[in-house]
Write a structure and sequence with these properties.
It is a single chain. This protein is an alpha/beta fold. The protein contains seven helices and ten strands. Strand 8, helix 4 and strand 9 form a beta-alpha-beta unit. Helix 1 packs across helix 6 and helix 2 packs across helix 3. The longest helix is centred in the N-terminal third of the chain and has 19 residues. The mean pLDDT is 95. GO terms for molecular function: orotate phosphoribosyltransferase activity.
């Protein structure tokens, strides 16, 4: 679910402008999972554009407090959401922690890095949601550390059915700045893609694991 339509459209346009989202139905990308995809999203590029990263920071800060209430801590999911998560925490005047994909094999064996007390309310910041599996592993680690998860806020989601089900099963509210539907609508309106390419992109979204196989 998006925070609001105006933010979703603006965020989608900014991501397209800086090529954080690339649409290429004629020459698909290959994801790490092996899936073929007509879209590639790298939201880490946002950090290189001060005006855009400030926009994302401000929209997150405003909407997180409005939708979830002001938490005790902001948590970023490593590595893509560490930078933007820190900016959001700074904007809200809150402590920040980040969550590794797995616990370290040495030292204190931490998976959650930073100071977190049991019972603290946490909002998790993520850069991108595909299936949701890695994001929800971070939630599990925070819960194991005693955190009370108020919800997750992400920059963009592909809106896969499997992700929606995974978040429902985990009882986590996910709100995003933008999503796949708003992206496609804007991409057609602004002539980033043709209507024929839009159809290809919609077909992929229905069954990404089997598309173009």
């Amino acid at each position: 679910m998006i925070f609001n339509k105006e933010t979703a459209e603006k965020t989608a346009e900014l991501l397209l402008q800086i090529n954080a989202i690339k649409l290429n139905p004629r020459n698909p990308f290959t994801w790490a999972s092996g899936w073929k995809s007509p879209i590639y999203c790298d939201n880490r590029l946002i950090l290189s554009f001060p005006a855009i990263r400030n926009y994302v920071r401000d929209e997150f800060s405003k909407n997180i407090e409005k939708q979830f209430g002001k938490p005790d801590v902001i948590a970023g999911v490593a590595t893509g959401a560490i930078g933007i998560g820190m900016l959001v925490a700074e904007s809200l005047g809150l402590p920040f922690v980040y969550v590794r994909p797995e616990a370290k094999k040495h030292g204190r064996l931490n998976q959650v890095e930073g100071f977190l007390q049991k019972g603290q309310n946490v909002v998790v910041v993520e850069d991108l949601i595909s299936t949701g599996n890695s994001s929800l592993l971070a939630v599990e680690a925070l819960r194991a550390a005693g955190a009370n998860i108020k919800g997750m806020a992400a920059i963009f989601t592909y809106g896969f059915d499997v992700a929606n089900q995974n978040f429902k099963n985990a009882n986590i509210d996910l709100l995003t700045l933008s999503n796949y539907q708003n992206l496609l609508n804007l991409a057609v309106a602004k002539k980033y893609i043709t209507e024929e390419e839009e159809q290809t992109l919609r077909e992929w979204n229905v069954s990404p694991s089997t598309w173009n196989v």
